[in-house]
Every structure is written in C-alpha cells, then in structure tokens.
Amino acid sequence: MTLPRGILPELSIPHPEEAGGRVPERTYRNLRRVAVLATATVALVPLFITTVMNYLQYRTALQAEAVQPMARLTLNTKRSLELFLSERRSALTFLVHERPFEDLCDERALTRMISNLNRSLEVGAFVDLGVIDDAGNQPCYSGPYELAGRNYADQDWFHEVARFGTSTSDVFLGFRNSPHFAIATKHDRDDGGFYVLRATIDADMLSEQILTAGLNPTDDVFLINRDGILQSPSRRYGEILKPFPMPVPHYSPSVEDVEVVDPFGEKVFMSSAYIESSPFILVHVKPAREAMGRWFSLRSELIGFLLVSTALILGVIGWGSGQFIRRMREADERRAALYHHVEYSNKLASIGRLAAGVAHEINNPLAIINEKAGLLLDLVTVGPESEHQQRLVAAVDSILRSVGRCKKITHRLLGFARHMDVQSETIDLESLLKEVLGFLEKEAEYRNLAIAFDVAPDLPTVVGDRGQLQQVFLNILNNAFAAVPEGGEIAIGIATEGPERVVVTVTDNGVGIPKEHLERIFEPFFTTKHGAGTGLGLSITYGIIKKLGGEIRVDSTLGQGTCFTVILPVTREG
Amino acid sequence: MEHLRLLFVDDEEELVSAVVERLELRGIDAVGVTSGDEALHRLREERFDVVVIDVRMPGIGGIDVLRTVNRRHPEVKVILMTGHGSAEDSEIGRRLGAIAYLQKPVDLEDLLTTIDRATRSPKGDERDG
Question: Closest Cα of chain A to B25: distance in Å?
C-alpha cells in the first residue's frame, strides 16, 4: 500500500521552524566520510598494487640487465687468466721432460731458456728459472736474485708439485721481497727420484692480464686466494696481499653473482669465478648505485607518479564528495521547506474553513438580534412619548452597538476564510510537474528510478492555485516513489481529453494497492502506515481536485503497479 | 417609495418578520417568505419591484431564484444576502445580474440605500453580453 510517507506531517506541529525533518549536520559529515573512504579505497588500492608490481618487475629486470654483462666479462677474464697460466705451465712441462737433469742444471742453459721462452710466448713474463732436486735443494738457478743453493723442502708448493706433478703458488714476497708467484713442474727419474723445474712470474702480470681483458675502467676487478688475501690490487679494498674484507665465495665451476653490502656500508653486485689449477679467485665488484643508475631514475619517476596520482585522486574525491553532499543537502532542505509549507498551508486552510463555518452560524442569529433590536427602536421612536422611552432607546442602542462589534468579528473571520480560498491563475501543467519533479529528482537519482515524461504537443493551460496543484502532484508522486523498489519505473503523461479537459497520469510498477484499500484511499485519516502518515495526503488531494472542478481516479493491480489519473478542466477563453 | 413592492426571503422566520415590519414602518410594501419555493410562488402570483433573498437556504437557494427571476420576471431586481462571505457566490451573483450582494447581518439603512439605488438604475448594467 502506498500512502504518503510524512508528506503531510502531523497537523499538531505548530510552525515550520521547529519541525522535524531537518537532517543533523553529523549525518552529512558521516556520509561524506563514508563516500570519501569508499571512493578513495576503490581508486587508490589498484593504483598502489599496480605501482608495487611495476616497481618489483622493473627492479628485477634492470638488475638482471646490470648483472649479466658483469658476469660475461668475469667469465671472459677467467678464461684469459686460465689460458695465461696454462700456456706457461705447458712450456715448463715441455722443458722439464725434453731435457735431462744434467742439461737443465746449467746456469747458461737456464738463462738461454728464459730468453727463448719469453721470446716464444707473446708475453713471456718469466723472471727466473731454477732446478730443484727431490730433497728440495736448488742447485741450479738463473735470474736476477741470488737464489742458487736454497732449500724449499718445507714449502707448500714443493709438497704440492711432488704430489701432483705441477703447482701454481699464491702470490708471496719470498726471499726477494717483491710480490710474485711460482709455477713448477716435476720430472720423475727412472731411479724413483725426481727433479723440478720452477719459474717465477711477477704478480703485476696478473693485473695486466685482468686489464687487457677489456673490463670497464670503473669496475673493480681483482684476484684473491682461497684464504681471502688479495692477489692483485683492488680499488676499493686495498693493496696486494692485504686481506679481502668480505667472506670468500664458495667454490663453483661457473661464475657466481651475488648482491651484498660491503664493509663501507654500500650495496654492491659481486661476480666471482675460481681460476682452474690455481689458488686464485677472480672477483668483480660494482657498486649498485652505478650498476642500477637507470633503475634509480625510473624509481623516482614511479614514486613521483604515485604521489602525484594519489594527490590528484584525493583532491578530486574531496571536491566531488563535497559537491555531492552539498547538493544532497540542498535537495533535502528544499524538500523539508516544501513539506513545512504544505503542512502550514493545510493548517491555515483548516482554520479558515472552521472560521468560515463559525462566522456563518453566528451571522444568522446575529441578523435576527439586529433586526429585532432595530424594530424595537423603530417602535419606541415612532410611538407616543413614554416615561421609559429614553432608557429604552439607550438600551437598544447598546444592543445594536454590541451586534456591530460581533458583525465586525464575523466579517473579519470570513475575510480570513476567503483568503484561504483558491487563487485562480493560469497554469502550464508541464512546467508545474517539472517543478515538482525537481524536488524529487535527487531521490530518483539515489534510488536509480527511471522516470519517463510524456507530454502531448500544444497542451492547453488550466486554471488553479499553483501551490495547491503542486501539493496534489507531490502527494501523488510521493506515493509512486514509495511504492516502487530500487530501480523502479515511474511514467508521467500529460494529454488532452477532448477540447475541455487535460489528463495527467502517474503510473508506477510498484507493489500495487489491495482492492479493499483502493475503495477507501481518498478517505480522510485512512492510512496503512500507522504512525508514519496522517492519512490526510490523498484526501486533501481529492478535495483540491474537486474544488478545481476536476476528477481524480486510481487504478491498481497488486504486484504490478498503480496508476493515478487526474483530470482538470482547461482554461476557458474570455 | 410608496409604490415599491418588495419580497424579502430568508429561512429565519424571526428575521423575516422583523425586517418586513421595519420596512412597512418606512412605508414600503414588503412581503416576507421563508423559502425559495414560496418566493417563486409569490412572484408568479403578484408583482414585485425588488426581491431581497438569502443565497443559502434549505431547498431552493437565492442563486436558483435569481436564475428563475431572470428568465420569467426580467423586470424584477434582485439583491442577494449571505452569512457566508464566499467570493465565488458573489462572482456568480454578479454575473447573473444581481443588483447587490450584502453581508449578513444586513444593516437596514444599507438595505434601504441599496433598494433606492436599485429602483433608479436600469437592470442589467453589469451583465455580460
């Protein structure tokens, strides 16, 4: 059932200003907070997720891009160092097997061999040569140092060469007190003994090999041994033979890449490779800030974009929700004002009708009193003088004066009632209905109602009181609004019926009205909304339409909808 | 005003008798009746110059009588009275050619002035068409 909801608030409400219907400020604040939070969440969460995903993906991609060339260069350098060492090892192996001990153990022969070796290898790099017997003594030596006759029996490299046949030593200072390393190969004699040919190479040769591998001059590339001692100078971590300040990488046959924080607190990419058949480990270090230069600028752009977008979104949401709430509030206030106006004029109209009734009822007996008193006065003044004449005249005058006072009062009351009467003016129904819809359009928007408006062309005007007609259509439309669910449909049609009548129909697809209610719908105080409505809305509507010489009808089918039809006479020409 | 014949119609008999008596004291030949029916009957039987009639009465009211008078006795002048100051009735009465529209309680002097004016001016001045 679809009677109006608070359209005609209780008549006992004395004045518009102290009425209910005013929505507290708090409600709008809460509403705005909810609107801002919901919209911001919906807008910002996907933005943050996308940005974080982009951040991670770009970082991974750019890091791979930075590390791969480093690893490639490290591998190339590892190969060239391995080649360098193996060439020298092969040359010594050839000599130690080619010549018998007696031939080798001759200082001039050794000197010639150094010269031939350095000539045959593009970069010879041999500093000296020595022959050592299986007791560790070095009977023969050729080179710039006085090393003939030294004994190496207690040195690690000697044990290694005795066991494995060949050895490459760490870089050390040795008797000569200058960084170098030794390569030695062994020849087994038929009698079960052996002798060793040993050559030393300046440690600088290793650094040169590293540099010739074509590494980027800003990179720090150096060698360490398995105990973590620098075997060539490092830009970042110190001179040769100083300890490398980070853990030694674990053995792996291929190149290993890691990201670590070095002792200076800087994040670096470190690529390392073990040099085969030697104690050396090649280490390639590059600070992350250099390797990831592109990433850092991209990261600033990403963060900047996120901040600007967030600020923009929040700004728009703040502004938009402010507008939204302000308009909603304006609509609410307009509607509340209209309701109060309607309620107030209803009250005045009732008072007017009451006053007119009272005045009419009193006027009749008052007229009799007036005439009887007048007659009395006529008779007294026309007839013969009597002793009470003067007192009679005075008494009748007093009655007539009192009647005059009553008459003034009843006329004033009637004047008030007349003021309440319909004020006739020519009205364009289309614009009037659009005005009324204006009060409801926000509600229609919030509830997603479809409102169809179908107006016949060249519509004639009608005569009526604008305020009352507004009230009529507001009542009917409010009923329709109350009847339809969310997303319901309301159709408004204005058409002519013959030359003298205009028909307005308001059709909804709402819940419909049961038959037993339909019969009583225009009765005063009939309502199905106990406590929520006065039951006066449609009875007043009915009264206004009748007063204007029109008709109002209602058709309804339960569950299908309701149609209100209002028929009004058109303005007569002249 | 010696030759003036007046018909006073109101559903309040007390009022009718008092007014008629007062008019007679002033030399007007007044007849009082208490319903529209009676008024129409007297109008058919006798000649009147002026009818003073209440708009709202049980049965036939002043407006109906006015319409009949217009049709059958167009020479008779009609003055309407009412205890209910409705602007619509006033407008209808004027359109139908009533000479005047008086608010109850009517002051006798006002009534006399109005009657005097009514008998002097030709009927139909304010009538449409």
Answer: 8
Residue A8 has pLDDT above 70, yes or no: no
Domain harbouring B61, CATH code: 3.40.50.2300
Number of domains in chain B: 1
Cβ–Cβ gap B85/A382 under 8 Å: no
What is the residue-wise DSSP string for A134-156? TTSB--EEESSS--TT-B-TTSH
Cα–Cα distance between A322 and A37 in angstroms, integer?
A: 13
Residue where a domain terminates, one of A252, A270, A291? A291
pTM above 0.90, yes or no: no
The CATH number that applies at residue A157 is 3.30.450.20
Domains contained in chain A, number: 3
Structural domain of residue A238, as residue ranges?
A: 216-291
Residue A200 lies in a domain: yes
pLDDT tens profile A305-346: 999 999 999 999 999 999 988 998 888 888 877 787 677 677
Q: Residue B84 — φ and ψ, nearest 5°?
A: -125, 115
Fill in the DSSP letter of residue A16. G
Residue numbers of the domain that contains B71:
5-109
The C-alpha atoms of residue A97 and residue A569 are separated, in whole angstroms, by: 133
The partner residue sitting opposite A360, judged by closest CB among B84, B87, B108, is B84
Residue B127 has pLDDT above 50, yes or no: no
Q: Which residues of A fall within a CB distance of 8 Å from B105? A: 363, 366-367, 369-371, 403, 407
DSSP-derived secondary structure for A529-545? STTT--S-HHHHHHHHH
For residue B84, the tally of other CB atoms under 10 A from its CB is 18
Q: Which of B56, B86, B108 is nearest residue A374 as measured by Cβ atoms? A: B108
Q: For residues A544 and A435, state if they share a domain.
A: yes
Residue B129 located in a structural domain: no
Give B40→chain A minimum CA distance, Å: 22
Contacts A573 to B, Cβ<8 Å: none
Could you report the per-residue pLDDT of B67-107, keeping only the tens digit for each? Answer: 998 888 888 999 988 876 565 667 777 788 888 888 888 88
B61 in any annotated domain: yes
What is the gyration radius of the CA atoms in chain A, in angstroms?
57
Closest Cα in chain B, distance from residue A486 (Å): 46
The vertex-A544 CA angle with A540 and A550, nearest 5°, equals 130
Chain B contact probe: residue of A362, A364, A371, A403 with most B CBs at under 10 A: A371
Are A374 and B18 a contacting pair at CB < 8 A?
yes
Same domain, A470 and A556: yes
- Whether residue B13 lies within 8 A of chain A, CB to CB, comes out as no
Q: How far is B63 from chain A (nearest CA, A)?
A: 17
pLDDT tens-digit series, residues A214-246: 666 678 899 999 999 999 998 889 899 999 999
Pairs across A and B, CB distance < 8 A: 71
Same domain, A165 and A253: no
Q: Are residues A532 and A549 in the same domain?
A: yes
In whole angstroms, give the CA distance from residue A360 to residue A114: 148
Which residues in B lie closer than 8 A to residue A419 (C-beta atoms)?
Answer: none
Same domain, A142 and A235: no
Please say if the pLDDT value at position A394 is more than 80.
yes
Shared domain check, A437 and A522: yes
A328 domain-assigned: no
Q: Is the peptide bond preceding residue B105 cis, with omega within 30 degrees of 0? A: yes
